[in-house]
Design brief:
By secondary structure, the chain is an alpha+beta fold. About 45% of the residues lie in helices and about 15% in strands. It has one domain: SMI1/KNR4-like (3-Layer(aba) Sandwich).
């Protein structure tokens, strides 16, 4: 199933309470420039420019929708639009991890996942969803659901789930949501 089919299915099932609006022209390019500038401060401008790439399926999502939101029984779940992604990535709450990353960048002693990630969404009170956007990294295009952590903290135990692509992430979570609705309850454990 391709990303367009997945997104059409999400909207047809009316899982989301907010209908996505039209994407403002240039919004995705603006987000990319802000994020590359942010990461240039860590990895250097040349590396940020050379290695940065949006995975194709996520780029299609960003060009198609202004975010998907679900709020049911106060279990807020959100996949950001380009503006939300830019803000969450460049003005993060995980300042400690980023200050530690900056130190590792200066010494050249990196953890396995020290690279360019986008914060693309959240759910619950401690889950952040990250997407790897370094085309030279082994995790390029993968999505990590991190519980009370980030890809940069060096603790693989903080990853609740790992998905090979944004499309797989949507499909897996859509299936979980359908199972939750079939049971007549929300498990409170998954985005979408």
């Amino acid at each position: 199933m391709n990303i367009k089919d997945v997104l059409d299915e999400l909207l047809s099932k009316k899982i989301f309470e907010k209908k996505p609006a039209w994407v403002e022209e240039g919004a995705v390019a603006k987000m990319e420039e802000a994020v590359k500038a942010y990461y240039a401060d860590f990895f250097g401008k040349e590396t940020a420019e050379k290695n940065w790439a949006l995975p194709v399926d996520y780029a299609e999502y960003l060009h198609s929708f202004t975010g998907l939101i679900k709020d049911k029984e106060n279990l807020n779940k959100d996949i950001y639009d380009s503006s939300g992604t830019s803000d969450a990535t460049t003005q993060p709450w995980w300042k400690y991890e980023m200050s530690e990353l900056k130190k590792r960048c200066k010494t050249g002693e990196f953890f396995r996942n020290d690279t360019m990630w986008l914060s693309i969404g959240w759910w619950g009170d401690k889950h952040e969803i990250f997407l790897c956007c370094d085309k030279m990294h082994e995790n390029f295009g993968k999505v990590f659901d991190c519980h009370d952590g980030t890809p940069w903290n060096g603790d693989d135990d903080s990853y609740i789930d790992e998905y090979d692509s944004f499309t797989e992430f949507l499909i897996e979570n859509l299936e979980d949501e359908e199972e939750d609705e079939w049971d007549g309850e929300i498990s409170g454990s998954r985005l979408i």
